[in-house]
């Protein structure tokens, strides 16, 4: 079934203050950029990260992590190229010359300006965001050329170049009438690739799917460790009754819940209401033994998401998207013990997220190991 539109809701679910707060965040971010402890961090494209001491460009122009003293990172937040509804299926075993990231800072030469001290999507102009919209439409209708490059061998190639050892693959269940079986297709592709030790199984279920619990049981039996819920895409509040039933089953199955959390600011405004961090607290509080990962650390609502991680020991923070000054503040406030490396590949190059964590943990070897690998290992052991 198609996702619901929400219907009539109490005014406190989404207020004028919420709308104003997002606009203010954009203004404040622009003023603060480059004013933090790391100064200006601007590069030309993802390739420009070769200016940092941990990276260089090889003879083929591929960005490579050349540091020899880093742990092999665990990426908690990856996807493959999507094909839904009428779109032809993506051949996930195909190798291509390069990955077309959905927000591709290397699409031109010398590349877009990449500022590591802002939320990452701020680096892309209106044309890039329009291209992202049309690319999303293509994934459901006529097929996406970019999605055809977002494949298993291309991800593994980028992981090898970036020094990433393994990655969780997180599908999304959109609640579409057909062609909405990314979990099954991605699980099968990983299984046939022989790379299950590096590409770790995630799954997704739609809260309005009457067979959601049955599906999650099957996914867990097949080896899934994480279930992805995306309140904005699924148009369901994370504290809705149907969601609470799914969390109870996740707890029984030993699944980790990975949420998209917060407003990125570029999604349809009609979906913003679902992702406010305050709507997540009831689930976190009701299920203290269930582990919750807040994707993007609340995105542009990070100031409201971070206190959840401070109050509740079952909350983990996916660091993807945040700028370096914000990440350092998160590290100092939480001690870094539940911060996780995530890249949101193939939206962005793996190195765009990795570089930020290397910057904030320079001279802090214990924190660096925790953020890149140790915390993920602890989460998986719970």
Backbone shape: globular
Look up the CATH topology.
Answer: TIM Barrel
Structural class: alpha/beta
Name of the CATH architecture: Alpha-Beta Barrel
Sheet with the most strands: spatial strand order: 4-6-7-8-9-10-11-12
Please report the number of helical segments.
12
Oligomer category: single chain
Unreliable sequence segments: 1-8
Bin the strand percentage.
Answer: 5-15%
CATH superfamily: Metal-dependent hydrolases
Largest sheet: 8 strands, parallel
- The helicity comes to 25-40%
Q: Return the domain count.
A: 1
Number of strands: 12
H and E order = HEEEEEHHEHEHEHHEHEHEHEHH
Distance between the termini: 34 Å
Rg, rounded, reads 19 Å
The top level CATH class name: Alpha Beta
What is the element layout, followed by pairings?
Layout: H1 16-32, E1 42-44, E2 55-57, E3 63-65, E4 73-78, E5 113-115, H2 126-140, H3 152-162, E6 164-169, H4 182-193, E7 199-204, H5 212-221, E8 226-229, H6 231-234, H7 241-253, E9 256-260, H8 281-286, E10 292-295, H9 302-311, E11 315-318, H10 324-334, E12 339-340, H11 350-360, H12 365-381
Parallel strand pairs: 4-6, 6-7, 7-8, 8-9, 9-10, 10-11, 11-12
Antiparallel strand pairs: 1-5, 2-3
Structure, described:
By secondary structure, the chain is an alpha/beta fold. The chain has a single domain, classed as Metal-dependent hydrolases (TIM Barrel), CATH 3.20.20.140. It has helices at residues 16-32, 126-140, 152-162, 182-193, 212-221, 231-234, 241-253, 281-286, 302-311, 324-334, 350-360, 365-381, and strands spanning 42-44, 55-57, 63-65, 73-78, 113-115, 164-169, 199-204, 226-229, 256-260, 292-295, 315-318, 339-340. An eight-stranded parallel sheet has the order 4-6-7-8-9-10-11-12, sandwiched between helices. A two-stranded antiparallel sheet has the order 1-5. β10, α9 (302-311) and β11 (315-318) form a beta-alpha-beta unit.
